[in-house]
Amino acid sequence: MPLLEPKPEVLRPGAARTPSPDRVPDVRATGTPEPLRGELTALLGPEKVLWTVSDLVKYASDASPYRFVPQVVVVPQDIDDISAILSYAHGKGREVVFRAAGTSLNGQAQGEDILVDVRHHWAGIEVLDDGARARIRPGTTVMRANATLARYGRLLGPDPASAIACTIGGVVANNASGMTAGTTRNSYRTVASLTFVLPSGTVVDTADPAADELLAHAEPQLCEGLLALKSEIEADAELTARIRAKYEIKNTNGYRLDAFLDGSTPVQILRGLMVGSEGTFGFISEVVFDTLPLDRKVSSALLFFPSLTAAAAAVPRFNEAGAIAVELMDGNTLRASVSVQGVPADWAELPKETAALLVEFRAPDEPGQEAYERAAAAVVEGLDLVAPVASVTNEFTREAKVISGYWKARKAFVTAVGGSRPSGTTLITEDFAVPPSLLADACEALLQLQAEHGFDAAVAGHAAHGNLHFLLAFDAAKPSDVDRYAAFMDDFCRLTVERFDGSLKAEHATGRNIAPFLELEWGPKATELMWRTKQVIDPDGVLAPRIVLDRDPKAHLRGLKTIPEVELIADPCIECGFCEPTCPSHDLTTSPRQRIVLRREMMRQPDGSPVETRLLDAYGYDAVDTCAGDSTCKLACPVGIDTGAMMKDFRHQRHSPREERIAALTARNFKAVEASARLAVAAADKIGDRLLETVTGLARKAVRPDLVPEWLPEIPGAAPRKLPRTSRVGASAVYYPACVNRIFGGPDGHRGPSLPQAVVAVSARAGKPVWIPGDVAGTCCSTIWHSKGYDEGNAVMANRIVEAAWGWTAGGKLPLVVDASSCTLGIAHEVVPYLTEDNRELHRELTVVDSLVWAADELLPELTILRKTGSAVLHPTCSMQHLGDVEQLRTVAEACAEEVVVPDDAGCCAFAGDRGMLHKELTASATAKEAAEVNSREYDAYLSANRMCEIGMDRATGRAYHSVLMELERATRP
Questions:
Q1: pTM of the model
Q2: In whole angstroms, what separates CA 182 from the centre of its chain?
Q3: Exposed site from 250, 312, 655, 680, fewest CB < 10 Å?
Q4: Apex CA 351: angle with CA 348 and CA 356, to 5°?
């Protein structure tokens, strides 16, 4: 065992706990039982079978209020694996549930036996017909697909609020729609063809001209059964009319019976049935969408009304005016949204009864936009709007940043309101639709019903389509609270069906939540047809039992999850999964959501239980060590939960007092440490990579892998010993070369000035000379200590750099330009909590400017571009995302290159200072997709603006990345 290996029990929850009723029982502590584990391992290979209790727990939760712990999780790589899993399940009498992003709100991504992860290994998009169509794999997020399609002026029809995380497979399987899709732009209407695997293992490609012939040969009984059901439905005029009527408004409750009316052959019928089938009919392995035009002329307004019913009453008028989206938000939603970055703070003061409509028009050209704006103005003129707080304008705007802020608030409905719920309560997200003409009445009835049952709920929705969402919070550990929820659901479902003839699920799909109420909405005849359809397609009931169809009248009350309190920073989490695609470790170990899910399970357990012990044993590496600490999860989370900060705090808790003292000593003596590090890098050129890899490898085994970095061949040579000469007299800014740029040089083979030399030269050319203080050695942005959770060392360096910067800048009179984005972030923001009160005052006087902003805003307007490279690919770092200066990176690069490309799969490289040297597997996993995209073609330049990230990308791609400021110097060099 390594000398300084941390003890897992340090992170054992210390608070007195009452074991939760839904805790994982002790018998599950050893994970997947035999022979299930052994048989699947032999069938698929050990790397495709996840079996530890930690694996099972982290897959047991999704965005829904339900929680079911699977027996095993398998991660197939191709259709052969899928067929093998289904064949095994048939032979052994087991059940299978498919799970992609886990953003589902009704429990349909959870299984109690074999859970199949179809997010890993299933991403990719191929653009067809110049963007008119797109072939997309099921693990691709909607946002990722639309990023590629945007280059062609196209987009997908479905646009769910969870587009950042939800995947195509789930969108199609649930027929999720979103803000603008309605009944005409959803998956059912825009899917051109599907490839899917039936429960029997038969693969069907609906685009194949011979598909029906092949299916008839492989599955004759299936084909006969489907055609018999079609004939029966078509022979019943009353039922046919009822089916058509049900889909005049949004409806995802039950199976798409209109597929029997719209399809003339078994394959065509199956194409329709697969949409919205929630994984109960087969696995969708590929989707070809008919895409839609991306109308770029956008006009939007957030209009405030005195009441929810007043807002709802205005919806038909905007529909008539041609609005593509009319989104409704009630007072609770608006007030909760203040937790979302960019939302005006005074929304917290809005009266509870206030409501708002987010109205948007999109046009392909200027004349179309002007026509829509005239129509919108005419509608607004006849409305009685209110302006309860100063930030309310009630005006239409074309400003992209303002519009983006409106949508950010709207899309944060579930997470923002859910994040503000009482601690320890479970969140239920309900979704229903009524004819749009009845929306105002439905709002009034809903509010009354919520009050009757004691729920202070929040309401929002796609008002243009009569589709409302509302949230309920209750304590699933209290039987009285569960009874209250059950009584509400009974009344709500009867109200929706009997008074409004509405859909009990408009776009979130039936799942487990509405299955008991399916017959209430559809009636016994149609419901029985759905059961018979399931029997025809999946006669052995292998796929997703108790999802969509369940005869248990209390099925929606089974498996409700408790939400035990965890660390304050993570406690608001509703486990929505929006954070997962941005997380560097989500394909390697755990995602931010899973880190919180695992922590909650520890809190459910009695102290010292076998399950808690096994979870703690795995948590050190899976959660704490392999977290990059980049906090991109905070950017993706609508309520800003920073799981990275929680992991850094856990690192701090694991440190011994001796480790903290040593870390503080390195901070106090950093000038010597910096000099030694530079000398070591310089000496490495003479020693050789192989020997250094061997030596550091042995040291890691002896001490601790999370403390001793591994030498990597991509580590560059040393920086020049001396920084460029500069003068304080006449300087426009103070230039602070980050310690990484004082230690490491540019990429191997680079010809030209170093980064500090380039910054000094290009600033002088622009007539804005910079000054490098003579005593920068021994100072640092403090990220070295911050990222590892060394609080004492962090405080030492944080206060030192702020005091030094205040002196260098003459008390903040000059800006401080920093040449590494992570260091800019550190000095500008991350040091603040560790400063003394006096130094916080000094910090407030500083203007810290990232070198990208300095170059784009201050230098470029004064420079003459003399030469350009042909093409450049960019790596925007996570720190740039936090600082909001990705556009400045692009601006500077576009001045230096004829063609500039930001990869669609660009993300955090996870090198994270030296974390990529501590856990190189983390960077390999985090950069795999981006590296593949970069290496799909040649570029003349590979650019970023952070040396350690550049080294990480060097390793990932085999290309030599360098700072865009070095490229700017070359482009402007006389």
A1: 0.94
A2: 24
A3: 680
A4: 85
- Helix residue spans in 298-365 (DSSP H): 308-321, 331-336
How many helices and strands, by DSSP H and E, does the chain display? Answer: 39, 25
For residue 108, give the nearest of 555, 588, 592, 637 by alpha carbon: 555
Q: Provide the pLDDT for residue 487.
A: 97
Among residues 834, 826, 748, 763, the alpha carbon closest in space to that of 796 is found at 834
Quick one: pLDDT at residue 716? 81
Host H or E run for residue 817: strand 816-818
pLDDT, position 235: 98
Q: What is the DSSP string of 628-643?
A: ----HHHHHSTT---H
Q: What is d(CA 820, CA 717) in angstroms, rounded to the nearest whole number?
A: 18
pLDDT over threshold 70, residue 3: no
- In a 3-state reduction of DSSP, which class is residue 133? strand
Give the angle subtended at the CA of 434 by the CAs of 429 and 439, to the nearest 5°. 95
Task: Give every CB contact of residue 538 below 8 A, 6+ residues apart in sequence.
Answer: 199, 280, 281
β-pair partners for 138 = none
Phi, psi of 269 (to 5 degrees): -65, -45
Q: Is 150 exposed, middle or buried (0-12, 13-18, 19+ CB in 10 A)?
A: middle
Looking at per-residue pLDDT, the higher value among 227 and 912 belongs to 227
Task: Give Cβ neighbours of residue 666 (< 8 Å, ≥ 6 apart).
Answer: 673, 793
Q: Percent of the chain, pLDDT > 90?
A: 83
Long-range contact list for 372-380, CB < 8 A, 24+ apart? 372/299, 372/321, 372/322, 373/299, 375/321, 375/322, 376/299, 376/301, 376/318, 376/321, 376/323, 378/321, 379/314, 379/317, 379/318, 379/321, 380/301, 380/303
pLDDT tens figures, 394-408: 999 999 999 998 998
H/E stretch holding 676: helix 670-687
